[in-house]
Amino acid sequence: MATTVITNISSLVTNDPSLGEGPLGTVQDAAVVIDGDRVVWVGTSSKAPATDNRVDAEGRAALPGFVDSHSHLVFAGDRTAEFNARMSGRSYSAGGIRTTVAATRAASDEALDANVRRYVREALRQGTTVLETKSGYGLTVEDEARALRIAAAHTDEVTYLGAHIVSPDYADDPAAYVDLVTGPMLDACAPHARWVDVFCEQGAFDGDQARTILKAGAARGLTPRVHANQLSYGPGVQLAVELGAASADHCTHLTDADVDALASGTTVATLLPGAEFSTRAQWPDARRLLDAGATVALSTDCNPGSSFTSSMPFCIALAVRDMGMTPDEAVRSATAGGAAALRRTDVGRIAPGTRADLALLDAPSHVHLAYRPGVPLVSAVWRAGVREA
Ligand code: NIG
Ligand code: FE
Fold first, then answer.
1. Neighbouring-strand partners of residue 55
2. Could you tell me the distance, in angstroms and rounded to a whole number, from the CA of residue 389 to the centre of ligand 2?
3. Segment holding 147, helix H or strand E
4. C-beta 96 within 6 A of ligand 1
5. Cα separations (Å) of 114 from 102, 118, 121?
6. Of the candidates 123, 332, 217, the residue with the CA atom closest to the CA atom of residue 133
């Protein structure tokens, strides 16, 4: 296998404090050696071993590829009108999901596959090398299983979200829909997914329904993650912690008890600032969670309704400007935090043995991701040792 050194990196974030300075393990004037799909050496440029190939970063900064642990990419249709109405003062509600459900059911497999491919590629160009995505716009046995099959063709991190909203076909009998989600739909979906998720919210699923659905998924080998406390206070976060979910996502409306639960458990608090941006909602308080000791991830929530962005750099900039995070904390949450939310140790860090996922920035340090918002700073991306962008 040919080895490659990426050298002359002005500042390298490793997320491994044993390799460099501070919690980000930053190495100045760094080099990284890749062998096949793995990192095999990290250190200062002058000490790099001889390799077959050499890439000169010309003083650019580098960091682990972003780990986007929450997106909804299997969809068709367009909700520009809904966004426009919101920006004219209307508020966001879970009901908008129905518009996308109708368009997704009507779309061909090829059209859905092309959509997922397009957004995964779009994210990759912006530095995202691991991406979770969900079903949730099918809401029939066939449409949910189809969504997961299509998602699994593009990523290993696939989540069954049959419980996104109660299917419009079951509007008069939500209990029967929960039976479907925990019965035949789960049977059809479990083989294609790693995770099970529920939108635990007024207008979607209450705490008891969510518990039933998550436990049924867990009994089939799917690990829970929860859309929790997005639009209102509620039981989602406590339920996520109680069930040992990998993450509680959104965390916008938290009581002190919710924050304590997240700080004392293993459930990662995943914050999705694109959703608050696109719905003009209050920002989640990242500072409060970090100060309490919770592990925080940042993710895009890319979906056509509440957050139509695939850009992790954009989310980092929002988190720094409006959620009380330092640039270092935001970058760590978008890389190592996302990896923790997906229970992955092979990504989100750059150290000997990790997968060779890294992004080069047209900037002298990772701080520029927040300092230069909206600027396409990602100039090269390696994923599993392959230069992709
Ligand atoms: O994470 N909260 C639920 N699901 C998505 C929104 C989906 C939609 O509006 O289509 C979210 O924000
Ligand atoms: Fe979501």
1. 6
2. 27
3. helix 141-152
4. yes
5. 18, 6, 11
6. 123
> For residue 135, what are its two tokens?
């079903």
- For the entire predicted model, the pTM comes to 0.98
State the distance from the centre of ligand 1 to the C-alpha of 93, rounded, in angstroms: 9
Element (H, E) at 236: helix 236-242
pLDDT of 1 over the 80 cut: no
- pLDDT single digits (tens) 256-268: 999 999 999 999 9
Residue 81, classified by CB atoms within 10 Å of its CB into exposed (0-12), middle (13-18) or buried (19+), is exposed
Q: Fill in the amino acid letter for 3.
A: T
Q: How far apart are CA 253 and CA 205, in angstroms?
A: 17
Reading the block at residue 69, the tokens are 């642990």
Asked if pLDDT for residue 92 goes beyond 90, the answer is no
Separation of alpha carbons 224 and 135, rounded Å: 14
Closest to 349 (Cα-Cα) out of 126, 35, 43, 39: 39
Residue with CA closest to ligand 1 atom 9: 305
Whole-number Å distance between alpha carbons of 328 and 63: 11
Distance 221 CA to ligand 1 centre (A): 25
Among 164, 247, 279, which is best to mutate for testing ligand 1, by the most ligand atoms less than 8 A from CB? Answer: 164
Q: How far apart are CA 298 and CA 286, in angstroms?
A: 10
Strand 61-64, strand 358-361: pairing: antiparallel
Q: Tell me which residue of 111, 160, 104 sits closest to 137, measured CA to CA.
A: 104
3-state secondary structure of 61: strand
- Residue 183 is which amino acid? G
pLDDT 10s digits, 129-188: 999 999 999 999 999 999 999 999 999 999 999 999 999 999 999 999 999 999 999 999
Chain centroid to Cα 220, Å, comes to 23
Q: Which domains does the chain have, with CATH numbers?
A: 3-65+349-387 (2.30.40.10), 67-341 (3.20.20.140)
Range in 81-95, 220-234, 237-251 the model is least confident about: 81-95
